[in-house]
Protein backbone atom coordinates (compact mmCIF):
# COMPACT_ATOMS: atom_id res chain seq x y z
CA UNK A 1 0.00 0.00 0.00
CA UNK A 2 1.23 3.46 -0.93
CA UNK A 3 0.06 6.37 1.19
CA UNK A 4 0.17 9.85 -0.30
CA UNK A 5 -0.25 13.02 1.74
CA UNK A 6 -0.90 16.42 0.20
CA UNK A 7 -0.01 19.14 2.68
CA UNK A 8 -2.04 22.01 1.30
CA UNK A 9 -2.58 25.51 2.59
CA UNK A 10 -6.27 24.95 3.29
CA UNK A 11 -6.55 21.18 3.61
CA UNK A 12 -4.44 18.11 4.24
CA UNK A 13 -5.50 15.19 2.07
CA UNK A 14 -4.38 11.59 2.36
CA UNK A 15 -5.01 8.61 0.10
CA UNK A 16 -3.95 4.99 0.05
CA UNK A 17 -3.57 3.53 -3.42
CA UNK A 18 -2.97 -0.05 -4.45
CA UNK A 19 -0.60 -1.38 -7.10
CA UNK A 20 -3.15 -0.70 -9.85
CA UNK A 21 -3.41 2.98 -8.93
CA UNK A 22 -6.88 2.52 -7.41
CA UNK A 23 -7.60 4.76 -4.42
CA UNK A 24 -8.66 2.52 -1.54
CA UNK A 25 -8.96 5.13 1.20
CA UNK A 26 -9.29 8.91 1.15
CA UNK A 27 -9.25 11.33 4.09
CA UNK A 28 -9.32 15.13 4.29
CA UNK A 29 -8.86 17.49 7.21
CA UNK A 30 -8.53 21.29 7.32
CA UNK A 31 -4.94 22.52 7.56
CA UNK A 32 -4.04 23.86 11.00
CA UNK A 33 -2.94 27.20 9.62
CA UNK A 34 0.03 28.92 11.25
CA UNK A 35 0.67 25.92 13.51
CA UNK A 36 3.55 23.59 12.62
CA UNK A 37 3.08 21.30 15.62
CA UNK A 38 -0.59 20.68 14.88
CA UNK A 39 0.28 20.14 11.21
CA UNK A 40 2.57 17.28 12.23
CA UNK A 41 -0.12 15.82 14.50
CA UNK A 42 -2.72 16.00 11.74
CA UNK A 43 -0.48 14.08 9.32
CA UNK A 44 0.32 11.40 11.87
CA UNK A 45 -3.35 10.97 12.77
CA UNK A 46 -4.28 10.57 9.08
CA UNK A 47 -1.63 7.89 8.55
CA UNK A 48 -2.69 6.01 11.71
CA UNK A 49 -6.37 6.07 10.68
CA UNK A 50 -5.63 4.81 7.18
CA UNK A 51 -3.37 2.03 8.39
CA UNK A 52 -5.84 0.98 11.07
CA UNK A 53 -8.65 0.76 8.51
CA UNK A 54 -6.47 -1.04 5.96
CA UNK A 55 -4.88 -3.34 8.50
CA UNK A 56 -1.45 -2.86 6.94
CA UNK A 57 1.48 -0.45 6.84
CA UNK A 58 2.22 1.67 3.80
CA UNK A 59 5.02 3.63 2.21
CA UNK A 60 4.60 7.36 2.70
CA UNK A 61 5.11 10.17 0.21
CA UNK A 62 4.34 13.76 1.09
CA UNK A 63 3.64 16.60 -1.30
CA UNK A 64 4.46 19.98 0.21
CA UNK A 65 4.15 23.56 -0.88
CA UNK A 66 7.74 24.69 -1.47
CA UNK A 67 10.49 22.14 -1.10
CA UNK A 68 13.07 20.66 1.27
CA UNK A 69 16.23 22.74 0.88
CA UNK A 70 19.18 20.50 -0.11
CA UNK A 71 21.42 22.99 1.71
CA UNK A 72 19.69 23.04 5.11
CA UNK A 73 17.23 20.13 5.11
CA UNK A 74 14.51 22.60 6.11
CA UNK A 75 11.35 23.57 4.23
CA UNK A 76 11.78 26.59 1.94
CA UNK A 77 9.66 28.50 -0.60
CA UNK A 78 6.32 27.43 0.91
CA UNK A 79 3.44 29.86 0.52
CA UNK A 80 2.09 28.10 3.63
CA UNK A 81 4.72 30.16 5.39
CA UNK A 82 4.38 28.39 8.77
CA UNK A 83 6.24 25.44 7.23
CA UNK A 84 9.25 27.48 6.11
CA UNK A 85 12.41 26.86 8.11
CA UNK A 86 10.88 23.78 9.79
CA UNK A 87 12.61 20.36 9.93
CA UNK A 88 9.68 18.48 8.37
CA UNK A 89 12.00 16.00 6.65
CA UNK A 90 13.45 15.01 10.06
CA UNK A 91 10.27 15.18 12.12
CA UNK A 92 7.89 13.09 9.99
CA UNK A 93 10.21 10.08 9.44
CA UNK A 94 11.00 10.03 13.16
CA UNK A 95 7.37 10.31 14.24
CA UNK A 96 6.14 7.80 11.64
CA UNK A 97 9.10 5.44 12.24
CA UNK A 98 9.98 4.90 8.59
CA UNK A 99 11.56 6.73 5.65
CA UNK A 100 9.32 9.38 4.10
CA UNK A 101 9.76 10.85 0.61
CA UNK A 102 8.98 14.50 0.01
CA UNK A 103 8.35 16.46 -3.16
CA UNK A 104 6.97 19.81 -4.13
CA UNK A 105 3.19 19.64 -4.63
CA UNK A 106 3.38 20.74 -8.26
CA UNK A 107 6.01 18.03 -8.87
CA UNK A 108 3.61 15.49 -7.36
CA UNK A 109 0.85 16.79 -9.62
CA UNK A 110 3.08 16.43 -12.70
CA UNK A 111 4.15 12.93 -11.65
CA UNK A 112 0.56 11.78 -11.16
CA UNK A 113 -0.51 13.04 -14.58
CA UNK A 114 2.60 11.53 -16.21
CA UNK A 115 2.13 8.11 -14.57
CA UNK A 116 -1.55 7.48 -15.34
CA UNK A 117 -3.19 10.79 -16.19
CA UNK A 118 -3.55 13.24 -19.05
CA UNK A 119 0.15 13.08 -19.96
CA UNK A 120 0.63 9.32 -19.67
CA UNK A 121 1.84 9.06 -23.28
CA UNK A 122 4.49 11.80 -23.05
CA UNK A 123 8.19 11.38 -22.25
CA UNK A 124 8.63 14.97 -21.10
CA UNK A 125 5.84 16.58 -19.10
CA UNK A 126 5.42 20.03 -17.61
CA UNK A 127 2.74 20.14 -14.93
CA UNK A 128 1.32 23.52 -13.96
CA UNK A 129 -0.99 24.28 -11.07
CA UNK A 130 -2.62 27.68 -11.42
CA UNK A 131 -4.76 28.72 -8.49
CA UNK A 132 -3.71 31.10 -5.77
CA UNK A 133 -0.18 30.64 -7.14
CA UNK A 134 1.49 29.24 -10.25
CA UNK A 135 3.46 26.11 -9.37
CA UNK A 136 5.22 23.95 -11.91
CA UNK A 137 6.91 20.57 -12.08
CA UNK A 138 8.98 18.67 -14.63
CA UNK A 139 8.71 14.91 -15.12
CA UNK A 140 10.93 13.04 -17.60
CA UNK A 141 10.30 9.35 -18.27
CA UNK A 142 8.00 9.22 -15.24
CA UNK A 143 10.59 10.61 -12.84
CA UNK A 144 10.45 14.00 -11.17
CA UNK A 145 13.33 16.29 -12.11
CA UNK A 146 14.26 17.80 -8.74
CA UNK A 147 17.23 19.90 -9.81
CA UNK A 148 20.38 20.91 -7.97
CA UNK A 149 18.53 23.54 -5.93
CA UNK A 150 15.31 21.53 -5.76
CA UNK A 151 13.42 24.18 -7.73
CA UNK A 152 13.11 22.61 -11.20
CA UNK A 153 9.88 23.75 -12.84
CA UNK A 154 9.42 26.85 -10.68
CA UNK A 155 8.56 29.11 -13.56
CA UNK A 156 6.19 31.31 -11.53
CA UNK A 157 8.90 33.54 -10.14
CA UNK A 158 10.60 34.27 -13.41
CA UNK A 159 9.70 37.66 -14.83
CA UNK A 160 6.94 37.72 -17.46
CA UNK A 161 8.78 37.24 -20.78
CA UNK A 162 8.68 39.91 -23.49
CA UNK A 163 6.91 42.41 -21.22
CA UNK A 164 4.45 44.80 -22.83
CA UNK A 165 3.77 48.39 -21.82
CA UNK A 166 2.57 48.40 -18.23
CA UNK A 167 3.92 44.92 -17.44
CA UNK A 168 7.31 46.06 -16.20
CA UNK A 169 8.33 46.45 -13.39
CA UNK A 170 4.92 44.90 -12.69
CA UNK A 171 3.11 44.11 -9.45
CA UNK A 172 5.05 43.24 -6.28
CA UNK A 173 5.25 39.51 -5.48
CA UNK A 174 5.41 37.84 -2.06
CA UNK A 175 8.85 36.48 -3.03
CA UNK A 176 10.27 40.01 -2.88
CA UNK A 177 10.54 40.57 -6.64
CA UNK A 178 8.21 42.43 -8.96
CA UNK A 179 6.60 41.38 -12.23
CA UNK A 180 6.79 37.64 -11.52
CA UNK A 181 4.75 35.42 -13.85
CA UNK A 182 2.65 34.50 -10.80
CA UNK A 183 1.57 38.11 -10.30
CA UNK A 184 -0.01 38.03 -13.79
CA UNK A 185 -1.22 34.46 -14.07
CA UNK A 186 -2.59 33.35 -10.69
CA UNK A 187 -6.35 33.21 -10.16
CA UNK A 188 -6.27 36.31 -7.92
CA UNK A 189 -4.29 38.11 -10.66
CA UNK A 190 -7.21 37.62 -13.08
CA UNK A 191 -9.55 39.11 -10.49
CA UNK A 192 -7.16 42.04 -9.91
CA UNK A 193 -6.89 42.77 -13.64
CA UNK A 194 -10.68 42.71 -14.01
CA UNK A 195 -11.14 45.09 -11.10
CA UNK A 196 -8.34 47.40 -12.26
CA UNK A 197 -10.06 47.53 -15.66
CA UNK A 198 -13.27 48.85 -14.11
CA UNK A 199 -14.98 45.56 -13.25
CA UNK A 200 -16.47 44.37 -9.98
CA UNK A 201 -14.54 42.54 -7.26
CA UNK A 202 -15.37 38.98 -8.37
CA UNK A 203 -13.42 35.74 -8.67
CA UNK A 204 -11.63 34.34 -11.72
CA UNK A 205 -14.33 31.68 -11.96
CA UNK A 206 -17.06 34.33 -12.13
CA UNK A 207 -15.08 36.31 -14.70
CA UNK A 208 -14.79 33.20 -16.88
CA UNK A 209 -18.56 32.70 -16.59
CA UNK A 210 -19.20 36.33 -17.61
CA UNK A 211 -16.90 35.88 -20.60
CA UNK A 212 -18.95 32.83 -21.63
CA UNK A 213 -22.08 34.96 -21.28
CA UNK A 214 -20.55 37.47 -23.70
CA UNK A 215 -19.60 40.32 -21.34
CA UNK A 216 -17.03 42.44 -23.23
CA UNK A 217 -14.84 43.39 -20.23
CA UNK A 218 -14.56 39.79 -19.02
CA UNK A 219 -13.67 38.71 -22.56
CA UNK A 220 -10.96 41.38 -22.82
CA UNK A 221 -9.44 40.39 -19.47
CA UNK A 222 -9.44 36.69 -20.37
CA UNK A 223 -7.93 37.37 -23.79
CA UNK A 224 -5.14 39.36 -22.11
CA UNK A 225 -4.65 36.47 -19.70
CA UNK A 226 -4.43 33.91 -22.50
CA UNK A 227 -1.82 35.92 -24.36
CA UNK A 228 0.28 36.20 -21.19
CA UNK A 229 -0.08 32.50 -20.43
CA UNK A 230 0.99 31.70 -24.00
CA UNK A 231 4.11 33.88 -23.68
CA UNK A 232 5.02 32.38 -20.30
CA UNK A 233 4.54 28.76 -21.46
CA UNK A 234 6.43 29.39 -24.71
CA UNK A 235 9.53 30.18 -22.68
CA UNK A 236 9.14 26.78 -20.97
CA UNK A 237 8.74 25.01 -24.34
CA UNK A 238 11.95 26.67 -25.52
CA UNK A 239 13.88 25.29 -22.55
CA UNK A 240 12.93 21.61 -22.35
CA UNK A 241 10.31 21.09 -25.05
CA UNK A 242 7.63 19.05 -23.26
CA UNK A 243 5.28 16.85 -25.29
CA UNK A 244 2.44 17.73 -22.94
CA UNK A 245 1.75 20.63 -20.61
CA UNK A 246 -0.88 19.64 -18.05
CA UNK A 247 -2.94 22.29 -16.30
CA UNK A 248 -4.40 21.86 -12.83
CA UNK A 249 -5.78 24.17 -10.16
CA UNK A 250 -8.82 26.43 -10.31
CA UNK A 251 -7.81 28.22 -13.51
CA UNK A 252 -7.63 24.86 -15.34
CA UNK A 253 -11.46 24.85 -15.28
CA UNK A 254 -11.53 27.68 -17.86
CA UNK A 255 -12.34 25.54 -20.88
CA UNK A 256 -11.32 27.97 -23.63
CA UNK A 257 -7.64 28.02 -22.54
CA UNK A 258 -6.94 24.65 -24.17
CA UNK A 259 -7.68 26.01 -27.65
CA UNK A 260 -6.79 29.66 -27.27
CA UNK A 261 -3.38 29.41 -25.59
CA UNK A 262 -1.70 26.96 -28.04
CA UNK A 263 -3.01 29.18 -30.86
CA UNK A 264 -1.07 32.08 -29.34
CA UNK A 265 2.25 30.57 -28.28
CA UNK A 266 3.81 29.75 -31.68
CA UNK A 267 5.35 33.23 -32.31
CA UNK A 268 7.32 32.88 -29.06
CA UNK A 269 8.59 29.32 -29.65
CA UNK A 270 11.89 28.81 -31.46
CA UNK A 271 10.58 26.20 -33.88
CA UNK A 272 8.81 26.00 -37.24
CA UNK A 273 6.15 23.73 -35.73
CA UNK A 274 4.88 23.29 -32.16
CA UNK A 275 3.35 19.90 -31.37
CA UNK A 276 3.26 20.42 -27.61
CA UNK A 277 -0.28 19.83 -26.31
CA UNK A 278 -1.97 21.79 -23.53
CA UNK A 279 -4.38 19.53 -21.64
CA UNK A 280 -6.47 19.53 -18.52
CA UNK A 281 -5.48 17.31 -15.60
CA UNK A 282 -7.21 13.92 -15.66
CA UNK A 283 -7.23 13.46 -11.91
CA UNK A 284 -8.37 16.97 -11.01
CA UNK A 285 -7.78 18.00 -7.41
CA UNK A 286 -6.59 14.48 -6.56
CA UNK A 287 -3.48 14.61 -8.73
CA UNK A 288 -1.23 16.06 -6.04
CA UNK A 289 -2.04 13.45 -3.46
CA UNK A 290 -1.84 10.61 -6.00
CA UNK A 291 1.57 11.84 -7.10
CA UNK A 292 2.74 11.91 -3.50
CA UNK A 293 1.80 8.24 -3.21
CA UNK A 294 3.66 7.49 -6.47
CA UNK A 295 6.90 8.87 -4.95
CA UNK A 296 7.43 5.21 -4.01
CA UNK A 297 7.40 3.40 -7.34
ZN1 LIG B 1 7.69 36.09 -7.19
SS content category: alpha/beta
* CA(first)-CA(last) distance: 11 Å
Annotation field: number of helices:
10
Beta-strand content bin: 15-25%
Strand order of the largest sheet: 3-2-1-4-7
Describe the main β-sheet briefly: 5 strands, mixed
User: Which molecules are bound in this entry?
Assistant: zinc ion
Arithmetic mean of pLDDT: 95
Contiguous low-pLDDT stretches (5 residues minimum) are none
Can you put this structure into words, describing what you see?
- Helix content is 35%, strand content 21%.
- Strands 3-2-1-4-7 form a five-stranded mixed beta sheet.
- Helix 3 (105-116) packs across helix 10 (287-293).
- The protein is an alpha/beta fold and 297 residues long.
- A hairpin with a 3-residue loop joins strand 8 and strand 9.
- Residues 157, 173, 175, 177, 180, 182 line the site of zinc ion.
Brief description of this entry?
The protein is of the alpha/beta class and 297 residues long.
Question: What topology does this entry show?
Answer:
Layout: E1 2-7, E2 11-17, E3 23-30, H1 36-54, E4 59-64, E5 67-68, E6 75-76, H2 88-96, E7 100-104, H3 105-116, E8 124-130, E9 134-140, E10 143-144, H4 181-185, H5 187-196, H6 204-212, H7 216-240, E11 244-248, H8 257-260, H9 262-265, E12 277-280, H10 287-293
Parallel strand pairs: 1-4, 4-7, 8-11, 11-12
Antiparallel strand pairs: 1-2, 2-3, 5-6, 8-9, 9-10
Helix pairs in contact: 1-2, 3-10, 6-7
